[in-house]
Write a sequence for this structure.
């Protein structure tokens, strides 16, 4: 299982790195060609696309992954339902374009929203193809699709931006990426749908999935609520700055978590009845994930100013305080996700849903601060509510494998301590009066060297495990070569 998991993590990481990394690099180029306001317009549309994508999936993907004996009838039932549902939702978004434009006082949103509505259907066509690959822990195929889609769509976006297409270059980039990714999955995954549908299978899968759907919908809506509040109460330019700031820590924290979740969920589901083995695997995943997350995200917070100047230019400097606050908010994201992942492995989608409702009631406070005070209070409040939410997640998921909050905190304290000291050193360097093009690489070198030397000295278990995995990959690569 360890070898399968490591292989899956490797290809899943490659898939995310290509899909998100290439897109991130392209966005750095586009950020120098486009304005924060143009990014803000796409940020508004992304609110609705994210929510509709969540609704289309309806929790069926996780239900199929968890079901040990899923067959073609299950796949066809879900595919046919998702496709029909996506057409209805896409049409609804298309017809709502004028209302969205009026609500945000942005007439440009009308044609942009109508064009982007097609993404909902395109993504729905890929859900089962991707689910089958995840069940088989086959991320190599997904990586090939991501590579082609990300590079091609990136080139399309850059060329259009150079030609003066403005915000439409971002729209074209997203549509082309979704379309090519779906096409690739259909080419390399040989499963094909038929007109089969079973109400019995639908009810069985939906009985598990609907709670995850509501939970995911609440979570997605709440995440997009920040964009909604900023877009409505402030300006498209402020939203553009916020989405740009959010993209950097999201590249590390959220996407690393996605990699781990995609592999750990089907893997841990296979040993869901072996409590001791499950706990041991779960602890290792948390310790490794949090060491990497703390170092990357807190290091990013420390070097935020020079990083922004080097990567996207001085016109984006206003997003630096947003970026630093978001880094502290997102450093616990993997812990949230992995604790909730345990509830899914145990089949407790009901408890998953209850927790999401409670946490989102608490999360109303930062949103109200954003509406009635300012954006900085909103982001600061989200850090506090994030800590409370983690406590709730760990309190209710830990007992299933006898892994208490105290044990979890004890496991991650060494990584956090190393990372926060490193971040303080890197931040202190930002007061050195030298070019950011010299300072930023210097901060990376100093920060990485500090972490390496301390981890070598202390011989942290999670650090040793990361080294072991890295050596295995290098050995396999050399042997193939």
């Amino acid at each position: 299982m360890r070898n399968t998991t490591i292989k899956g993590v490797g290809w899943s990481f490659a898939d995310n790195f290509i899909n998100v990394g290439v897109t991130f690099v392209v966005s750095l180029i586009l950020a120098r060609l486009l304005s924060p306001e143009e990014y803000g317009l796409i940020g508004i549309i992304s609110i609705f696309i994210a929510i509709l994508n969540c609704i289309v999936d309806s929790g069926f993907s996780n239900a199929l992954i968890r079901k040990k004996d899923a067959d073609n009838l299950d796949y066809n039932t879900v595919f046919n339902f998702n496709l029909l549902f996506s057409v209805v939702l896409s049409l609804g978004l298309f017809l709502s374009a004028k209302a969205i434009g009026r609500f945000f006082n942005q007439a440009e949103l009308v044609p942009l929203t109508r064009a982007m509505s097609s993404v909902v259907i395109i993504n729905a066509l890929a859900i089962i193809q991707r689910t089958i690959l995840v069940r088989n822990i086959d991320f190599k195929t997904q990586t090939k699709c991501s590579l082609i889609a990300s590079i091609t769509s990136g080139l399309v976006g850059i060329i259009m931006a150079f030609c003066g297409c403005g915000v439409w270059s971002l729209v074209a980039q997203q549509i082309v990426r979704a379309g090519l990714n779906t096409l690739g999955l259909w080419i390399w995954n040989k499963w094909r749908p038929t007109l089969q549908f079973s109400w019995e299978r639908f009810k069985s899968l939906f009985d598990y999935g609907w709670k995850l759907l509501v939970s995911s919908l609440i979570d997605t809506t709440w995440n997009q609520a920040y964009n909604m509040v900023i877009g409505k109460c402030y300006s498209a330019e402020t939203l553009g700055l916020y989405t740009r700031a959010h993209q950097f820590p999201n590249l590390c924290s959220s996407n690393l978590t996605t990699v781990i979740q995609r592999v750990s969920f089907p893997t841990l589901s296979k040993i869901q009845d072996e409590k001791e083995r499950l706990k041991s695997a779960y602890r290792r995943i948390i310790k490794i994930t949090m060491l990497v997350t703390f170092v990357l995200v807190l290091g990013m917070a420390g070097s935020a100013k020079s990083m922004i100047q080097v990567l996207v230019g001085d016109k984006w400097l206003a997003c630096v305080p947003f970026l630093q606050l978001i880094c502290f908010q997102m450093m616990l994201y993997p812990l949230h996700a992995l604790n909730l992942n345990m509830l899914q492995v145990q089949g407790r989608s009901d408890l998953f849903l209850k927790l999401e409702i409670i946490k989102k009631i608490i999360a109303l406070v930062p949103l109200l601060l954003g509406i009635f005070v300012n954006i900085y209070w909103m982001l600061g409040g989200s850090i506090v509510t994030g800590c409370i939410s983690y406590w709730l997640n760990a309190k209710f998921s830990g007992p299933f494998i006898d892994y208490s909050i105290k044990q979890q905190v004890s496991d991650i304290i060494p990584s956090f301590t190393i990372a926060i000291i490193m971040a303080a050193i890197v931040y202190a360097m930002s007061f050195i009066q030298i070019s950011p093009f010299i300072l930023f690489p210097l901060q990376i070198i100093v920060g990485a060297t500090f972490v390496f030397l301390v981890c070598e000295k202390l011989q942290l278990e999670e650090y040793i495990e990361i080294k072991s995995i890295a050596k295995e990959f290098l050995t396999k690569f050399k042997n193939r070569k």
Summary: Residues 1-232 form one domain. The radius of gyration is 22 Å. The chain has a mean pLDDT of 84.
